């Protein structure tokens, strides 16, 4: 039964009917939104996982290369070699609207025109392993940026799906059934009132006719006459 | 114009400076957290943080999860892969679907 007291009036009934129509429509729309979000999210999550595994493998092998490079050089020489980076990456962050979720889109620019211009040192005092290590890390960078985009999108969409799902469930299992129950309650109450009014009117009519024509009195008299005649 | 930051222990991240990313070697929980919060509220759109460094400040990272920027990405450090990054992806799936139906057996 409805938790709050509702007035069984026609105005309330009209209001509730409107509310039900809105809720049903909202429920349908939100359900569609949830389904579409879910479809896109699953694709994105698969892509995210593939990218992550790739990036993790890439970084792992780059780390191995760096360890080897480090073993062949003194720490000071290595620090000097990497102290003044030649290259810089600038990021342009835009956003894209996917089913009302804003997800970031990154595009990056490097300071020097040649993306491969990554060696910030002369080759004379460094081991060749370092070149390989830096190169392997540079190769994985575009994937890393893609990963940051995808993973953020995944996180944002996941929370949006969660919110939408809660809204759908609240409408489906709470708001809509409650409104329907209230509408039913008011309809029943109004019908009941109408019937009781009808009966009351019939009763009053009977009483008024009785008063005007004295049916019962006449009937008794007729019955007495008939008995006397016998 | 945004920049990219890398946080972690020095050995894991010094290579990234050659690529033009800003590296911030940290050690210890407090320093990591301070640096992370500083960078996250600065003009860094992407923050790569090693899994080892992130494991201590996961609650702080969680706060930035539902913001558009910055995008916080866990990367494996030189000491190896703890699996936290993959767990993060699984967590997203779990949050959205209710249970991990994609990578449950990986």
List keywords for this structure.
A: mainly alpha; Helix Hairpins; two-stranded antiparallel ribbon; 4 helices; 2 strands; B: 106 residues; alpha/beta; 4 strands; globular
Question: How do the helices and strands line up, and which of them pair or pack?
Answer:
The complex is a heterodimer of chains A (230) and B (106).
Chain A: H1 10-71, H2 75-83, E1 89-98, E2 101-110, H3 128-213, H4 215-229
Antiparallel strand pairs in A: 1-2
Helix pairs in contact in A: 1-3
Chain B: E1 3-8, H1 10-13, E2 22-25, H2 29-40, E3 44-50, H3 51-56, H4 58-63, E4 71-75, H5 84-97
Parallel strand pairs in B: 1-2, 1-3, 3-4
Physical arrangement of strands within the biggest beta sheet of chain A: 1-2
Number of strands of chain A: 2
How many β strands of chain B by DSSP? 4
Proportion of residues in extended strands of chain A: 5-15%
| Apparent shape of chain A | rod-shaped
How does the helix and strand content of chain B classify structurally? Answer: alpha/beta
Low-confidence stretches of chain B: none
State the helical fraction of chain B.
25-40%
State the share of residues found in helices of chain A, binned by percent: over 70%
Counting copies of identical and different chains, the oligomeric state is: heterodimer
Number of separate domains of chain B? 1
Number of helices of chain A: 4
Mean pLDDT of chain B: 86
Net shape of chain B: globular
Nutshell version of this structure?
The complex is a heterodimer of chains A (230) and B (106). Chain A is mainly α and 230 residues long.
Could you explain the architecture of this structure?
The complex is a heterodimer of chains A (230) and B (106). Chain A has a two-stranded antiparallel sheet. Chain A has four helices and two strands; from the N terminus they run H-H-E-E-H-H. By secondary structure, chain A is mainly α. Chain A has a single domain (10-182), classed as Helix Hairpins. In chain A, helix 1 (10-71) packs antiparallel against helix 3 (128-213). Chain A has helices at 10-71, 75-83, 128-213, 215-229; strands at 89-98, 101-110. Chain B has helices at residues 10-13, 29-40, 51-56, 58-63, 84-97; strands at 3-8, 22-25, 44-50, 71-75. Chain B has five helices and four strands; from the N terminus they run βαβαβααβα. In chain B, helix 1 (10-13) links the parallel strand 1 (3-8) and strand 2. Helix content of chain B is 40%, strand content 21%. A four-stranded parallel sheet of chain B has the order 2-1-3-4. The longest helix of chain B has 14 residues, at 84-97. Chain B has a single domain, classed as Rossmann fold, CATH 3.40.50.10580. With 106 residues, chain B is of the alpha/beta class. The model of chain B has no long low-confidence stretch (mean pLDDT 86). The chains are: A mainly alpha (230), B alpha/beta (106). At the A-B interface, helix 1, strand 1, strand 2 and helix 3 of A face strand 3, strand 4 and helix 5 of B.
């Amino acid at each position: 039964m409805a938790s709050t007291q509702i007035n069984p009036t026609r105005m309330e009934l009209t209001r509730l009917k409107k509310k039900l129509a809105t809720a049903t429509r909202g429920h349908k729309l939100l359900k569609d939104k949830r389904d579409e979000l879910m479809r896109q999210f699953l694709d994105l999550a698969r892509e995210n996982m593939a990218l992550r595994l790739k990036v993790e493998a890439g970084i792992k092998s780059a780390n191995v290369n760096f360890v080897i490079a480090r073993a062949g050089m003194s720490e000071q020489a290595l620090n000097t070699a990497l102290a003044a980076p030649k290259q810089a990456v600038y990021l342009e962050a835009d956003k894209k609207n996917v089913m009302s979720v804003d997800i970031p889109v990154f595009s990056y620019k490097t300071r020097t025109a040649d993306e491969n211009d990554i060696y910030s040192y002369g080759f004379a005092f460094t081991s060749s392993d370092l070149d390989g290590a830096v190169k392997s890390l540079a190769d994985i960078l575009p994937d890393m940026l893609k990963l940051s985009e995808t993973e953020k999108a995944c996180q944002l969409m996941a929370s949006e799906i969660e919110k939408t799902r809660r809204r759908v469930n609240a409408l489906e299992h709470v708001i809509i059934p409650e409104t329907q129950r209230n509408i039913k309650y008011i309809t029943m109450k109004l019908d009941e009132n109408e019937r009781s009014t009808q009966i009351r009117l019939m009763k009053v009519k009977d009483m008024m006719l009785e008063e005007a024509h004295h049916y019962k009195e006449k009937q008794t008299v007729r019955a007495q006459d008939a008995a006397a005649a016998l | 114009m945004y920049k990219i930051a890398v946080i972690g222990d020095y050995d894991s991240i010094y290579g990234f400076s050659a690529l033009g990313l800003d590296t911030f070697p940290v050690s210890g929980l407090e320093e990591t957290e301070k640096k992370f919060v500083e960078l996250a509220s600065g003009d860094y759109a992407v923050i790569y943080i090693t899994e080892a460094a992130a494991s201590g400040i996961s609650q702080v990272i969680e706060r930035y999860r539902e913001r558009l920027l910055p995008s916080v990405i866990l990367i494996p450090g030189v000491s190896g892969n703890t699996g936290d990054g993959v767990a993060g992806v699984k967590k997203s799936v779990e949050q959205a679907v209710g249970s991990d139906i994609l990578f449950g057996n990986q």
